[in-house]
Design goal:
Length: about 120
């Protein structure tokens, strides 16, 4: 049996890294300080919590960030899947309902048997 890969932090990057590794058949241990400890900015025990803004910036492929969004979608990104599922109107930006977004990430991580 393989040893698990340890990832520290269940923010956007940690949640995405855990998801991608698990989807590729690897065992992952995701270490998150919440709900035992919160920073002054955190209010939810959920993973992938957005604390400063609900915007993931431009979603237009002619902009670098929008192009990155497209590439991440093609790679099966958990974060972009959750953002697309819980998108709110914001012009050309990709903005999300923060609560539903982080809840969706948490549910998918918790349901993944390799994490």
């Amino acid at each position: 049996m393989q040893k698990p890969i340890h990832i520290v932090g269940g923010g956007l990057a940690g949640s995405e890294a855990a998801w991608q590794l698990a989807r590729r058949g690897l065992s992952v241990r995701l270490h998150e300080m919440k709900p035992q400890r919160f920073s002054p900015a955190h209010v939810s025990p959920d993973l992938g919590e957005l604390v400063c803004s609900n915007s993931l910036r431009s979603d237009q492929p002619e902009h670098a960030v929008g192009l990155l969004h497209d590439e991440l979608r093609r790679l099966g990104s958990l974060v972009l899947w959750a953002a697309d599922q819980h998108r709110v109107p914001a012009g050309r930006a990709l903005a999300v309902d923060r609560v539903q977004f982080s809840q969706a990430i948490t549910r998918r991580i918790e349901a993944e048997p390799r994490i």
